[in-house]
Amino acid sequence: MAGYINGAQLKRDHSGLCDICAADGRPGTADDPLVKATDGFRVHLSDTTDPASGYYGQQQRS
Predict the structure, then answer these.
(1) 42 with 9: CB under 8 angstroms?
(2) What contacts 24+ positions apart, CB below 8 Å, involve 16-20?
(3) CA distance linking residue 9 with residue 22, whole number of Å
(4) Phi, psi of 11 (to 5 degrees)
(5) Residue 33: which region, alpha, beta or left (left: phi > 0; alpha: psi -120 to 50)?
(6) Which residue, 12, 33, 35, 61, is the most exposed by fewest CB within 10 angstroms?
(7) Where are the domains positioned within the chain?
(8) Where do the H-state alpha helices sit in the chain?
(9) pLDDT tens digit string along 6-53?
């Protein structure tokens, strides 16, 4: 998973939270995996596709 990860997400990763969504605190799943947002946090794919989410349209492109 290449791309930009911000310092706060790196701290989350090193604390064992690399598979926990930064937006809602739930783990990623096969049906709703975590993706990198343009701000460098890992969030659910659904967060980037839901117009009601603050992460709408903000998935990093590889």
Answers:
(1) yes
(2) 18/42
(3) 8
(4) -65, -40
(5) beta
(6) 61
(7) 1-62
(8) 7-14, 45-49
(9) 999 999 999 999 999 999 999 999 999 999 999 999 999 999 999 999
